[in-house]
Amino acid sequence: MDATRGPILFRCDGTPEGGWEPLYQCLSLAAALQRRRRGTLFFSYLEPLSMATGISRANNDWAAAEQPLGSPGDLEATLAQIRKSNAAAVVVAGDGMTPDYLEAIKQTGTLVMVFDSSAQMMFPVDVVVNPLLAPGKKPYRVGPGCQRLLGHRFALCRGVFRRQRTIRATEPPQPYRALVAFGDDDPAGETLTRTRQLLGMEKVQKVTVAVRTHHRQYDELLDLADASNGAVEIVTESKELLTRLVRVHFALSGGDMWSPELCVVGIPQLILSQTTRHGMNGKKMDEEGVATFLGHAAEVSAEQLREAVDMLLDDPMERKGMSRCARNLFDGRGPDRIVNGMEIMLHAPSRRRTAVSIPANPLLKIAA
To answer: Which of 28, 77, 214, 277 can pair with 156 through a Cys bridge, CB separation 3.0 to 4.6 Å?
Structure first.
């Protein structure tokens, strides 16, 4: 047995405090790995625990972590899980990791990959992936031999977006429909606030809100949809989102991983960031002409949003140009490129090794 064909271990969490974006990033990569017949194992601390169902439903194995990433005792539990599963590689995503944490994992001999969009520390790992457009190469401090996979070529994209890319080749007919996609990490509650503001705009006839059931304001959003006489709909499943992507005329996003995915389909966007790193990504997307960055959400008033929406809907050439630039920049093949890089490194002569299976009773091996 070749150890390079061992499973890929994902060390990531999904909690209200730490956010769910790292988990969804890992799920996007896991889907690409499964297309290469790679086993995938998630070692995660989840809240709510029902999220484990979604991980398993995507054909991933899951083991429960007893503490969040970076907590006391987490490193020992992670190292034990690596040895138990004989992992060929470990993918770490989340705010709790430190250089010492990553160095200890690398010393096990397994390949270590990190998802990071902040570049705030030294990375003693084999691969660093930034699926957003910013920051670029220069701010990242890495150890010897580390590869940096950065920018639009490595943007993560789920299959639901890639499949709709060819279908939405042209803008759908009116009336105008909007998609609100701030993701589940929505500390300021912008999803509910901006949906209400869109309802007050005469040009917007329909608002689709993409959230999951663990969103902080999910119940309030359902109440808003019930009281809107059909003007607002809540979409929680990928199958439901599939049919909406080809019908919306623009989207409100937060500059997170949803933004590149919407670009793959070619949906014009207005970006309202809630974090510094998402703001950097939004600015870069604005510079590339694939979206309009309005600023930090707390600093953008309802009137400013109305003006931005009116300008976008009144200018069909702006929407067409934004859609064309987005589709040209993002092709939805980022996960496959990351997997290719990982496979090349795993099968390098310096890393190939033979896996030794240890029998349940060592005396049997001695007798043999």
So the answer is: 28
Instruction: Tell me how crowded residue 17 is: count the other CB atoms within 10 A of its CB.
Output: 8
- C-alpha span between 9 and 6 (Å, rounded): 9
Cross-strand bridge partners of residue 61: 41
Token pair 């503490």: residue: 67
Instruction: Identify the H or E element spanning 128.
Output: strand 127-130
Half-sphere exposure of 305 (CA within 13 A, CB side): 28
The neighbouring-strand residues paired with 354 are 2
Among residues 179, 320, 327, the alpha carbon closest in space to that of 260 is found at 327
Q: What is the CA radius of gyration of the chain?
A: 22
DSSP at 209: E
d(CA 277, CA 275): 6
Q: What is the largest CA-CA distance in the chain?
A: 82
Q: Are the CB atoms for 121 and 94 separated by under 8 Å?
A: no
Q: Which residues pair with 181 in a beta bridge?
A: 253
27-64 per-position pLDDT tens digit: 999 999 999 999 999 999 999 999 999 999 999 999 99
Instruction: Going from the first residue of the chain to its last (368 residues), give the mean pLDDT of each consecutive group of 10, the final group possibly shorter.
Output: 73 94 96 94 95 94 96 96 95 96 95 96 97 95 95 94 91 96 92 97 97 94 96 93 94 96 97 96 97 97 98 97 97 96 88 44 38
Q: What is the tens place of the pLDDT at every residue in 188-245? A: 999 999 999 999 999 999 999 999 999 999 999 999 999 999 999 999 988 899 999 9
Q: How far is CA 312 from the centre of its chain?
A: 27
Instruction: Classify burial at 9, counting beta carbons within 10 Å of its beta carbon; exposed 0-12, middle 13-18, buried 19 or more.
Output: buried
DSSP string, 44-112: E-BSSTTHHHHHHHTT-EEEE-SS-TTSTTHHHHHHHHHHHHT-SEEEEESTT--HHHHHHHHTTTSEE
